[in-house]
Structures are given as C-alpha cells and as structure tokens.
Amino acid sequence: MRYRGVECLNCGHPLDLTDRFCAYCGQINTTKRLTLKDFLSEFVLSVFTYDSRFWHTLKDLLFKPGTITRYYVDGKRFHYANPFRFFLSASIFYFIIVGLFSFFENENVRQGNFRVFGDGKETVQEEQLDQIFQDSILTHLEGAPPLINDDITEVIQEAKKEAKKSNQAKKRRDSIKASNGLPYDYVPEKEMDTLFALESFFTKFQLFQEFYRATDISDTDKALDSLKYSKSKTNVWLYNKTEAIDRIEKNPLRFLNYLASKTPFFIFFFSPIYALFFWLIYSKKRANYMEHLVFIFHIFSWVFVVLLVCLIPDKLLPTQNLFAGVLLTLLGPFYFYKALRNFYKQSRVITLIKFVFLNIVFWIGTSVFALIFFALTAAFY
Q1: Domain span at residue 10?
Q2: Is residue 143 included in any domain, yes or no?
Q3: How far is CA 196 from the centre of its chain?
Q4: What is the gyration radius of the CA atoms in the chain, in angstroms?
Q5: Of the chain's two ends, which shows fewer C-beta atoms within 10 Å, N or C?
Q6: Could you tell me which residues come within 8 angstroms of residue 23 by beta carbon, excluding any fewer than 6 positions away?
Q7: By CB neighbour count within 10 A (0-12 exposed, 13-18 middle, 19+ buried), where does 171 fall?
C-alpha cells in the first residue's frame, strides 16, 4: 500500500490507493523504484503468465477436441491463446525445427560423415550427395499433414516429369539444329502475335527458355534485343521466369524448401474457403462464419502440435516419421469426428454423414487450391 499512487505512471489515468492496477492500461499501481529483485520477479511472472495461457490452450487442444472451440466461442477466452496466432506460431515453429534438423543432417553429409554400406569400406560418393539431400527433404515432408505431403509430392513428381522432358528436349536441340542455323526454333514477334493468346504465351516461353539455355544470357534487356522482341512487361517477366526455372533445375531442393515454407500461409488462406462449407452444412446451427473459422484453426493447430510432439520419437526410430504417420492416421479421423460432435452438438449419425462430406470437400478443395497457390508461388519465385 505504501508504494501506491494516485496517478498511473504509464498513462496518467487517475487512480485510488485501493487500485492495484490501472483500469485504463493495466499497469500495476506502484511508485517503487526498480530493483534487481523486482525486475527478476516481474520477468518470471510475465513468463509464467504467458505460459499459463499457452499450456491451457495446448492441454485442451490435445485432449478436448471441439470443447476448446466451444469454450472460446461461448466467451471463456481469458485462459486461451488467440486461435489464429496459435496456429501460425505452431506451424511456423514446426517448419523451423524441421529446417534445423535438415540443416544439421545435410551438414554432416557435407563434412564427410557419410553412411557406410556393406563391409564398411565403401562410402557414398560425391555424385550421390544430391540424392541424399533430396531424400532428407522428402523424409521430413512425409511427416507433414496429409495435405502438405500430397501437394508437395505432386509438385515433386511434376517437377521430375518436366525435368525429364527438358533433358530430352535438350538432347534433341544439341543433335538437330534448326534450318536457320540456330540451336533454337526462332519465331519472330510479329508472327507470334498472330497466334492465339494461350498458344502465343507457351510458344514464346519455350523460345525464351531455349534461347537462355543456348546462349546463357541472363540480362533480360540484352536477351530481348538479341531476339528482336519488345521490352514489354509480359516479355520481361516471361524471360525472367526462364532464369527462375534454371535456378530450380540447378537447385530443386531450395525450391522445395521455398514451397514448404509457404505451407502455413497456404493453410491460413485456404481455411476461410473451407469454413464456407461448414457455414453451409451447419446453416441451422447458431454458429456464425467466424466461429466456424475458429474451429478449423483449432483442428489445423492440433495437427501441427502432434507433428511437433512426434519429431523426437521419429528421430529415435529406425524408420523416420513412422510415429507421426501412424498417430495421425489412427487419431486424426477420430479427433475430427469428436471435435464435430463436441462443438456442433449433433447426433452420431448426422455427425458421421457430415464428417464424410467435409472430408471429401477438404481433399478436393485442397488439391484445387494447392495447385493455384503453389503455381502462383512458383510464378513469383
């Protein structure tokens, strides 16, 4: 009491001596000068105050599917972290940890700590390093949520097909020269303008790509001048993409890491679209659109928390990501079903029907939206 004042030192709001905290800004009402003991006490208190909300959210998220959303929607929010912030924190933290694991594993390979085969005398050769790095990235991606794993795998397979086509095209260009003596099929810009828009786009892109590989000219202005093409925004952007594709072919793992780092933002932007289907099929319930969105972010947060919990056990097992895969496969559907039951309070039969429908919508919507999102991401790489 002897240190309390009649005015908040932070915002100047008038206080009574009985006020422990400022009613306007929340700062403690004290005029006592700062000491080391007070500083340490305040630091410890702030950490445990933050952690209490974090641990309360984590505990209910793991063991009370759907109930945490019901509590939050009903206004019991003091003990819970913001669902949107918690989701971003959990997902980004997961990819940071995975990235650190990949970094140290790749460093061991680069420093010569190779895996030994057979009698122990034969080690991995230099030309096998790229495959080791790729396997390391793919192994980590296998432990990601199903939508991440499927989408990234699809991107990888498409990249492999395109690389194969590119190598075949390169061999043809090297063996067969065009009639005009150039190592690429040149099409004048005036002739290009007579083609349909989509055909013109892809023909021009193929020309720029072949020209870049034949001449290795990275300067866009110089390249367009050599091709006698105008420096329009489309031509400049399109030629820059040929250089980006070359970077992807030279270092595909860096591009895969780039795509993987965008996954939390992909889920963040996909969630509002997915929430529309919840809003439609639960139209008779009193939950509004934002409450459906909170429910979805809690579900995705649970997935990333499970993946974080499984990181260490998976590292100890001989087959990496086995623990996370089994846990998500067995518990994922059950958790989602229980969350629907606990939050929306409908019968088992109705919940099961909607559970199946929402899963179908989820996989179709994820595939379509992922192709669009990752295509846009690659376009600005």
Answers
A1: 1-32
A2: no
A3: 36
A4: 28
A5: N
A6: 13, 15
A7: exposed
Q: Please report, as a single letter, which amino acid is at residue 152.
A: I
Residue ranges of the chain whose pLDDT lies below 50 = 113-127, 129, 132-133, 136-148, 169, 172-173, 175-180
Q: What's the CA dihedral at 254, 325, 374, 266 to 10 degrees?
A: -110
Q: What are phi and psi of 271, to 5 degrees?
A: -55, -45
Contacts of 186 (CB under 8 A, 6+ apart): 178, 180, 207, 227
For the chain, give the number of residues.
381
Residue 40 lies in a domain: no
Dist. CA 298–CA 179, nearest whole Å: 62
- The first and second tokens of residue 379, run together, are 């376009």
Q: Which residues lie closer than 8 Å to 108 by C-beta, 6 or more apart?
A: none
- As a whole number of angstroms, the distance between CA 354 and CA 274 comes to 14
Number of domains in the chain: 1
Tokens of 68: 């945490």
The answer to whether position 117 is within a domain reads no
Residue 4 lies in a domain: yes
> What is the token pair recorded at 85?
């912030």
For the whole model, what pTM was predicted?
0.60
DSSP letter for each residue of 167-194: HHHHHHHHHS--TTS-SS----HHHHTT
| Three-state DSSP state, 345 | coil
